[in-house]
Amino acid sequence: MKVSVIIPVWHGDSVIAQCLEAVFARSGETLHEVICVDNASPDTSAAIIAEQFPQVRLLPQPVNLGFAGGVNAGIMAARGDVFMLLNQDCLPHEGWLTAVTQTFAQHPQIGIIGGTIYNADETVNHAGAHIRHPDGYSVHETAVPPTSDPQIVDYVNGAVFAIRREVWQQNGRFDDDFYPGYFEESDYCYRARKNGYQVAYVPSVQATHLFSSREWQKDPLRHSANQHRSRYRFVSKHFTAVQLSPFFTAEANALDQADLHIHQIMGRLLAARDTLRDQAAIANARQRDLDQPISREHERLLSRGFTRLLRLSWARAHRHIDANQQKRQELRQQEYDLLTKIYFRAPNETQPESTGQRLWRLLVKRPLSFITLRDYLLLAQLNTLHIARLDLLEQQLNQRLHLLETLTDYEYR
């Protein structure tokens, strides 16, 4: 069997050379070609590949196609019998491709293979995976079995993901509406299983995942929205009508958690909104990829469920905003209390002060407060509260501006 290694590239200039060096050093004779699909990276990824690895087939794209779109472009150009998808920040171990081709040769019913993926600290990140019910989250197994035999699993992670050519011919393209990523490999494995193929985790197919990408840290709200949107798309495509009710209940319960971050709240809101807009397209994708039309009842369950999630997300966001407003009011009240202690009179006091009271306050109480350093200590507390309130105001303003920006331009993610 000839293997085509396909690497989608995006912001990969810090890792792509290390990845390609490992591929060429550790792949053996089964390696037929390496294809890098550059998703219009704004860095020097493409230049590094072209200059340092002329043996790589570089396919530059005019725009970012996302992981699934990049994979589709790479596979369409590939000539191998097996397509091995590899993340740009994964370093394969010795013999990884041999283990893939041997497993495919010995087990014709297996159509997709994943492997043992280690973190940089040598802990196990992936040893097979499954979709958790009822909430539809993906869960990686981390216990490596004592045997090297292939283990039949729900799905395998796309970072190291081998596909027989015949599975691609029957399954068709990856669903590139899982954009920019997440759940596209789960969807593909489910489709392959429906077509009669098994999905296997093979312990001896090994790689180390550096997890170099930190783009999500620059915009955690958009990252959260993309993750939830892909999860909702997967649920809409693959969950049965019976599974939808507990799924929506689980999502509602998640929104009720007291410590839920605003990014998770608004991420669900954006994802629910987009999923509602895309229901017709998702129904077409379900028909195309699974040959399963969505019944009217199923369609109503999806529409009502995501509409309810949208409303619950808005309500939860308002509760979060109200809590911040209450915190700001509490800080303001503490400032008033301190000012009252400092000046021995409330700032908002409306009752007129007699001359004797005013002279006693200004000529006796205030000087004594200075002499005993009481005034200094209270002013220090006041400054601390004032800075805290200004920081909270700035945080809320920036948060609202970012929410507004994301709500208006999320379609161009």
Can you tell me about this structure?
This protein is an alpha/beta fold and about 425 residues long. The chain folds into three domains: about 5-215, Spore Coat Polysaccharide Biosynthesis Protein SpsA, Chain A (Alpha-Beta Complex), CATH 3.90.550; about 215-320, no CATH class; about 325-410, no CATH class. It is built from 14 helices and twelve strands. The chain has helices at about 15-25, 45-50, 65-75, 95-105, 165-170, 185-195, 215-220, 220-240, 240-255, 260-275, 280-290, 295-345, 355-370, 375-410, and strands at about 5-10, 30-40, 55-60, 80-85, 90, 110-120, 125, 130, 140, 150, 160-165, 200-210. Strands 1, 2, 3, 4, 5, 6, 7, 10, 11 and 12 form a ten-stranded mixed β-sheet that branches. A two-stranded antiparallel sheet has the order 8-9. It is elongated. The model has no long low-confidence stretch (mean pLDDT about 90).
